[in-house]
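Researcher: We're reviewing a set of sequences before deciding which ones to prioritize for further study. For each one, I'd like a predicted 3D structure that I can look through quickly. This is Integrase catalytic domain-containing protein. If possible, include the structure in C-alpha cell form so it fits the rest of the review sheet.
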Amino acid sequence: MRFPRATRLLIDRDFVALAPNRCWVADFTHVKTWSAVVYVAFVVDTFSRRIVGWSAATVKETVFVLDALEMALWQRDRDQQPVTAGELIHHSDAGSQYTSFRLAEHLEAAGIAASIGSVGDAYDNALMESTIGLFKTELIKPQRPWKTLAQVELATAEWVDWYNHRRLHGEIGHVPPVEYETNYYTELTKPQVTTTI
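Model: Here's the predicted structure for Integrase catalytic domain-containing protein, in C-alpha cell form for your review sheet.
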C-alpha cells in the first residue's frame, strides 16, 4: 500500500535550496560483493550538496532508507543546526522503500514534507543520480572487487567524509560542502553594518 500524501512532486527538478535543511534528496544504489549485494542509501542537502546521511544493508527494505534519514537528522542536531518542522522537503524517486507507510509516517511525525518523483524519470531526482554516479566512479569501481558489507561500509564512511570536507564542488564555488555551509552560517551571524549620513 502507498501513502497518498507522499505522491506529490514538490520540487519540480529545482535542486537549488536557499538555505540548509530546506530540501533533501534521497536514493540508493547497489554494490556487488563476494558475500551479498550491498545496498547503500544517501540523503543529500541540495543547498550545499552535503551528504547528511547514509546507510548500507544487504536487504533493500524501508528500514535501511530510514536509517539514512535518521543519520541525517542526527547529523544536523549534532551540528546544532536541527531541522525545523514544516521547513524541509524530503524528495526521492517512487521506489517502494520511499513510498512506504513507514517512511511517510516517520516524515510526517518529524514535520518533513514528502516529495516523490514520477515513475521511471531519472531527471526528477537528477542531483541524487549525480551523487550516486560520483560514489560509483570515485569509490566503488576503482576499488573492486568488494568482499563484504563491512568493507563497503568502512569505505563509504571514509568517502563521505572526504566528499563533505575536502572534495571541491563546482556548483557551490569550488569549495567542500561543509565549508560552504559554514560560510553561510558565518554570514548570517555577522553584525549588520549601518551607515549614517
